[in-house]
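Q: Hi! First time doing this. I have a protein sequence and I read that you can turn it into a structure. Is that right? Here it is:
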Amino acid sequence: MAQQILDPPTDDFFDEDRKIVEHLLAELGISFKKRNEARSRPEVNPSDAVNFSPPRLHQSRAQALQRIRKWVKMKLMLSQTAIVYDSGLAFERMDKDFLCSISRYFNNALNGPFMEATTRIIRLRHDFPWAVYAMLDFLRNGSYYMYPVLQQQYPRITMLDLHVHCYIVADKYDIPALANYAAVNYLRIVADVLALDWKFDDPDFYDESENLPCVNYHYWDMCAAAEVSRFLDSVVLLWRNTASSHDALRKVVLEMIMACFIKLMRLKSFQFVFHTFKEFRWDLAESFGEDGLEMSGRKRKENGYNSRTSTPTPLLKPIPTPETTPGSALIKVTVAPVLSYAREVYNGTRKYPYTAPIVPGTSCIGRVAALGRDSTSLKVGQLVYADATIHSRDNPDDIILHGLTAGASTGSKKLMEEVWRDGTYGEYTLVPLESVFALDEKRMKELGYGEEELATMTKYLCVGGLRDINLQAGETIVVAPATGAFGGAAVACSVAMGASVVAMGRNADSLARLEETFPRVKTVRITESVEDDVAALQAAAGGRAIDAVFEVSPPQAAKSTHVKSCILALKRGGRMSLMGGIQEDYPIPLRQVMRKNLTLRGTWMYNREQVLALIKMVETGILKLGKQGGMRDMTVFGFAQWEKAFDHASDNAGWATTVLMRP
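A: Yes, that's right. Below is the predicted 3D structure, encoded as structure tokens:
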């Protein structure tokens, strides 16, 4: 990258200060023009966050340097992005346009309604630091290698392991070029390892004194066994960090292992991996054919049948139609919504727990095809809404989202693995009776709603959080952030419930559309200044007390200050509904919560009564759906176009856009 050259900010520098700043800039690859080249002070856009003015001689050295640093930061932020990793201990600067062109993840982060778009700082968390370092090395130079310092820190790590680590981060941050480079080089080494000719049949694998692998045979066999052992280490690493149903590299590795399976089974090291790692064993068994391998006297079964196999990417194929049992309903799917983050879930980026193979898809609009014998009110052929939230009947704490996540408890995982696994991206889906809601088809037609409009109801189920804090007509509520799919829906629901709304967000265009659609809505831009944001919220409320807050932040907003601003803006006795997806601990102004008698109420999803309340709001015409309610775009894809549907949903995330799929 060419060295940047900046005009000197002023001639009023202290000499010592100038030397310090020039040294700092040199480390960043930036230099000042020579004094005789500087014709004027650099121009600064008034709209920029930093308004540079030269330090005066009477100012302290610290004040002068503070202004200089702000000015330099402003200049850098015009084209540069900082990537922070290793728990904040390391960072790299990279060109923003280059990052956006090579990664859809970075493009969405830097151009979407997220904090990164404002700060130009991307924090990469929970990644192996050397994998991120290698990723950045690849982005700069087109390759990476085994770094000496890495080998010193991790003596057992191999190039196979590094390739797998890079493949994992490439998949997580959607960098196809890096994923392809890592996979190709990994498979090249694997092919060489599996081509080695080892002649032993059943060597002693464990040293009884240390319980570690040992080799007691010919030197060549020792070398071959060591290479195979390193390969198996990388296999374990790959299987632990990727989603079995959708990973292409896993599939190729399985094919290579199958080609020399008998040879590998002679090795106790391979036997150890085979019997210890369940997912690897299951995937390998399924790869050998429709019936799989016999293991411990049992065959793996999927929902009562074992004729299905997991695929590296979603695959359109026929499967047996589920049979109804007491307490269930078989729904013929007519249209199903696509989440904006569906691609990240099903390619493993978000690491949602679910049992594979799985039919994706959450809720749907459909018609009852068959009913369990204990059904007393639903009728075959009836138009219904099938909801994605499924509770255990004997323990409401065990919750899954149909076709999306198995939750965190042992009971919830059992629900998905053994009973309610397959979602709505199929011609038929089996759901619990309590997840089925009858719709007044005649009334919906009178309101002008077709199946596509009705399918958008899933966005408005944020009404659960609003009802949990008992939002009343005439009250003032802040929705933050309000420009996403669920935030915008919360604005619509709050207006329908009779409240005045202050919509808070970063995207000025999206905020303007909300004001245009809902006359009772006022908007506030998030500035990351708590004091300014609190004042803006109170001003937008028009002098009225702010009674409630609805929070629905995405995971990327973990470092944003808007939650604190909203808490401080609440009146005494105010309520706050927390339905967001922030996954990290968040600082709360506890003293203010205590002194103002505030109530913070968490809500994950909703209950049956709240869904029925939402349907009543729609049927009475209080809550408008589809274009009547302000949505601008509803795009429908067929199941065969699942990839386009996932991409379109990801690229058009927001309240005013809905992506649907039909069989």
